[in-house]
Write a structure and sequence with these properties.
The structure is a homodimer of 391-residue chains.
Chain A (H helix, E strand, L loop, with lengths): L8 H19 L1 E3 H8 L3 H14 L2 E4 L17 E4 L5 E7 L3 E8 L4 E8 L7 H18 L7 E8 L14 H18 L3 E5 H12 L8 E5 L5 E6 L2 E2 L25 H11 L11 H9 L3 H25 L3 E5 L3 H4 L3 H11 L5 E4 L6 H16 L9
Helix pairs in contact in A: 1-3, 4-5, 6-12, 7-9, 8-9, 9-11
Chain A binds a DNA duplex (30 and 30 nucleotides) through α1 and α3.
Chain lengths: 391, 391
DNA sequence: TTATTTTAGATACAAGCTAAATATATTGCC
DNA sequence: GGCAATATATTTAGCTTGTATCTAAAATAA
């Protein structure tokens, strides 16, 4: 029996409750009349919906604001309904090869606790890795003054392909074992729902939420540190592809003037070493190269030129096939990468007929955790009426 | 006032009617009990919905089938509701630079009329172009034994970027003028709703519907005749990008071993000319090259090898960034391209870590019109309850 | 105090669905 | 042909959610 969800009268309440909740979440506090105007429902219905949401814990009724002499309101004072941002928290995880960072946020996305730990080594057993991740989560929750019982969802980013259903591509070495462990481990330990995603995809979510891609529906975020990786949003949705490998940059091996999917930091080291170093004497770190260039060092400036053209070619390849409105360069090197922007922007039209706007992420290291928080919030918002707010 | 669609009790009927109609469209004829099992609704509701759909003209009640002695059915005979595939027709247009083809289909997608005309020249004025298109439509409708009044929607494919809203990228030369003309012209002439799309995108719709990509959600169709162009579906949705230019192949200019976005037919001519021709004596058409190769001609075979590797590189580039499950080669050269498949499949793993299945389209020249019909049907199905079937 | 304004709450009713009882049309058996 | 069994159809009462309308309450302004 296929049983394709029949629409019963209860669906109406569900739909209207979702609409009201979404609006209240957006404005933080609303009156019945505002909600009537928004939804087109009558007052009776709006009030009924709000009482419903109050009893479920998603909104609370707040006192009248003290009467404001500058802006006196006629008429009977309205009841005021506020989004209960303390109905629970979400966790955003950035699980790297070397380090894991956790951020705890309330339901409006304000980060209220953080923690970070490095792994003892890269090849530690899955069990130890999970222990460290669990530790980071608990530390972050403690820093936020809350506990595991109040977590409504966990977003987690890893540097491996993850498909639409949150499964790690099995062809990847140790991650596959690790993944299965993480989701069920956190479920078993705390009852948490873990939403696994590729880190570049989460970066795209984060950038669109609180970065330079705010509100852009066709957005690509390039994580450009050690290795290039792209998170692609089209029409406001993340692209995954069949096995979650969308946004992988292996094809750059074949692109003239690019030749590899090495990131900006990796290349800065290599190229400065080849030059004998910007101030001579071996490879320099990426920040050093950018510093030297800012100071006028010609060798460093040449590296920047070369890097700009290379990035322009990378971005043009993506722009041609995906046609984003904007490409954001993010990751560890994002701040320095600002120096590349003029060069990239100038070179782009040579390589593509549809050059996107190019910007640099303001989110820094937090880009993945911000996206992970957003991912978890999206889940909570979409499933609010099926989730029991933690009391 | 934002007025975000309130859910009234009428919405329930709408949702349930959509579900019932979708199911009946799939199975062609259904009984009340089947629909109860499918939707989970009670018989009373199912019957009410069906009566509704009958009065709107979307379904019809059909007589009992003559009692079948091999399979006698106990109990009171069920009323049988059938999809009214003759509630109207849709038009699918393939508007090329040189030729326009129209297909008329009933609401189950069976093509019941076709027509095709060439333009007098490529640079004729927009007005003349529209006249020819209109003529082709009317001829196809006549061939189908129906008339303009019964057209519920028109899908139209053109070889230019078209954004999500059906607007042609304004940077394109004469198309922009042409487009505005086409949509409003057909609206004015016949009251038709025209859904403009990029031809490769429609090819992808067609291939997923009735081609070798049936049911594949992450699918790329490469139109590979004169110029390469891709229609990309991810998670069952067409990718457009900001200005509709997603799937453009300009970046191939930068890809080693590819170098241009020339199609198979164009390259077969050029390469055979460079060789002095497969049987000597100047350039040969693509079909000729494939023929000669099949006959064992070594020069032609060499061209095929070269072509296979080149296509493998093209497909690998896309596979890396988009990660489709399958890539279909379509367009005028599709039939001959079968000879390239073994070579492409063998070469792919050298160029990408996520090689897709590669096939050749069985739809031949009709690939765009089939997709255009599907596009129009999608529109009709999504908007059935707001559309008045043509009586 | 009194009028005005805005929101709140209560009552009557409509749309759509469920559930349960009753009616109808067919098969199969005597 | 008559009757049980079976599957479907139809009717009736009741639930949920919504609208529409009327009256009450709480504030400002004169």
């Amino acid at each position: 029996m296929p049983h394709a969800a029949a629409a019963t009268p209860q669906l109406l309440r569900r739909v209207n409750a979702q609409a009201v909740l979404r609006h209240i979440r957006g404005v933080d506090v609303a009156t019945g009349s505002e909600l009537m105007a928004l939804t087109g429902l009558t007052r009776a219905s709006v009030i009924a919906v709000c009482e419903d949401l109050i009893s479920r814990g998603w909104i609370v009724e707040v006192d009248q604001p003290r009467t404001d002499p500058d802006n006196p309101r006629k008429g009977r004072p309205a009841r005021r309904f506020a989004f209960n941002r303390e109905a629970g928290v979400v966790l955003g995880l950035d699980i790297g090869a070397a380090t894991t960072t956790a951020a705890v946020a309330d339901l409006r996305g304000t980060v209220i606790g953080r923690s970070s730990e490095s792994f003892r080594a890269e090849d530690i057993p899955a069990q130890e890795r999970i222990s460290v991740i669990d530790l980071v989560c608990r530390q972050a929750l403690e820093a936020a003054g809350t506990g595991p019982g109040r977590v409504l969802a966990v977003g987690a980013g890893i540097a491996a392909p993850v498909d639409r259903d949150g499964n790690v591509l099995v062809t990847q070495r140790f991650w596959s074992l690790f993944d299965v462990g993480l989701r069920s481990a956190l479920k078993d330990l705390h009852g948490w729902t873990v939403l696994l995603e590729n880190d570049a995809n989460l970066a795209a979510l984060g950038e669109r939420w609180r970065g330079s891609g705010a509100g852009v529906d066709d957005l690509v975020v390039l994580l450009a540190g050690e290795r290039l990786g792209a998170g692609v949003m089209e029409s406001g949705r993340l692209l995954h592809g069949r096995g979650g490998a969308a946004g992988e940059m292996g094809f750059l091996d074949m692109v003239e003037g690019v030749g590899s999917s090495d990131g900006i930091a990796a290349l800065a080291r290599r190229w400065s070493a080849a030059d004998g170093g910007p101030s001579a004497g071996g490879p320099a770190s990426a920040p050093r190269v950018f510093e030297d260039a800012a100071a006028g060092d010609t060798a460093a400036l040449a590296i920047l030129d070369r890097m700009s053209e290379r990035m322009a070619r990378v971005i043009a390849s993506i722009a041609s096939l995906i046609n984003p409105e904007q490409v954001v360069i993010g990751g560890a090197v994002a701040e320095s990468a600002g120096a590349l922007l003029p060069g990239i922007t100038a070179a782009l039209p040579r390589f593509t007929a549809t050059p996107p706007r190019v910007t640099v992420s303001p989110l820094g290291d937090a880009i993945v955790t911000v996206g992970a928080v957003r991912h978890a919030l999206d889940y909570v918002e979409a499933n609010a009426l099926d989730l029991a707010p933690a009391g």
